[in-house]
Amino acid sequence: MTLTESLFIIGLLIAASAFFSVAEISLAASRRLRLRQMADEGDARAARVLHVQEQPGDYFTVVQVGLNAVAILGGIVGEGTLSPYFGALFGLWLPEGRAQALGFLASFLAVTSLFILFADLCPKRLGMANPERLAVRVIGPMQLCMTLFKPVIWLYSRTADMLLALSGLPVQRDERVTSDDILAMMEAGARAGVLAAQEQQVIANVFELDSRSVTSAMTLRERIAFFRRDDPDELIRARIAAEPFSTYPVCDGDIDHVVGYVDAKDLFQRALKNQPISLAEEGLVRKVLIVPDRLSLAEVLAHFRQVHEDFAVIVNEYSRVVGVVTLNDVMSTVMGDLVGPADEEQIVRRDENSWLIDGTTPIEDVLHALGIDELPHAGDYETLAGFLMVMLRRVPRRTDSVSVGGYLFEVLDVDSYRIDQVMVSRLGRAAQAGEEAQASAERS
User: Fold this and answer.
1) 85 lies in which domain range?
2) Which of 115, 225, 278, 376 could form a disulfide with 119 if both were Cys (CB 3.0 to 4.6 A apart)?
3) Is residue 95 located within the same domain as residue 24?
4) What is the model's pLDDT at position 81?
5) What global pTM score does this model have?
6) Which Pfam families does this entry report, sorted A to Z (predicted)?
């Protein structure tokens, strides 16, 4: 065999190895969502790739058989072709034995380098860069190889399955997409500039609906504007003007005996037409949705959808009204900073290291604002005020403070045992070290 023929064979083997490398990495790196989109657009090859991804055992068996066979043949051909030429070159300066040894080593390094560069590194990087496009291109030839070498594939595949079964290892990958997977993709998209930071936050808020309690989005009992069933016309008109809301609970005596609710637009229509307003009038007061305070926001949304309402009264286990929630409250939780007037902000950032926060702010919003994952005793409270009560083990007073997680929480204003304002400051490194030392001493 001449040098030209040998080099031509080596080139063919490198091309074959590159094909199998591309086939391997492109299938493994292809995103199912992207392949499903291509299939829905009419690309039949993408559907075939999806099918192979569900049962990839035979596919990867062909790849490994091909790669190993080509590597062995490449070593045989390369060593026999190039060693004499390198040996003759080194023989001009070295003894024959040493020249042949160096010729073999040089031949091995040359052939190995060609395979590493052109049959492994470059094809795999190309496959990682465009996995779906390359996967649909190689699926046809790969399925042909799977058909031609089916007996060999069956033998190796069944043997590998048996060994994995004996070891207790899984033979199929888990294709389930979790919320963590989606959030990680959104975070990567935000870093790449595909998603705006606010868009990423909206998506994260949607997934938090299952974990956030309805009490984190409700209007507190003390802030509810309500009517009594026997309120006179003048009082109703005065309250509408003083406290303009879209919905008002109607009670029998006090707030804990809600009998229904009245829509503001119904009241406005009567007021504009100079008609008398009486909550005893049949049809004006609607049946109200009552939900327990232990529901998540996602569960409240399901209740809204089921009864076709957008307003609910929240009660605790003692049937005491603790607040009200509307569909707009839930949507405001999802949209975050994209909605809501500035004068209703519960978290105001004063500078790079300090925040002024309302005591009723949901603890999840506090964590987002401070950029921390968790505070101590998570689950024992739902608001910043609740966190301070748990940490102090009493009702906080003005100037009380708690230092935890590198932050100082200081109570600025208390109104009738209600925590109005809290100053949160990021501690310096020295203060954090002192805090950690104190915590360590308390544990010991």
Assistant:
1) 3-167
2) 115
3) yes
4) 65
5) 0.55
6) CBS, CNNM, CorC_HlyC
